[in-house]
Amino acid sequence: MTWKNYLELSEKTLSQEFFVTKRDELLLHAVMGIITELEELSEWNGDDVNQKEEVADVLWYMAILDRELGLN
Question: I need a labelling partner for 51 at 20 to 30 A (CA). Which of 26, 37, 38, 44 fits?
């Protein structure tokens, strides 16, 4: 899977029901999410599955930043 494919697929899981779609709020949500997931990752206790989930969560939030800022 390429990053471009991931961007398209990850956008489908961005809830519009409980989530505000204004750009500034999306960016804040992404940055706060990355910080939270990195904190959880730093507390890794040897559980490989949990570690992979946290890394995947960071990538999901990074995809928001990429879409909103056009980082490529």
Answer: 26
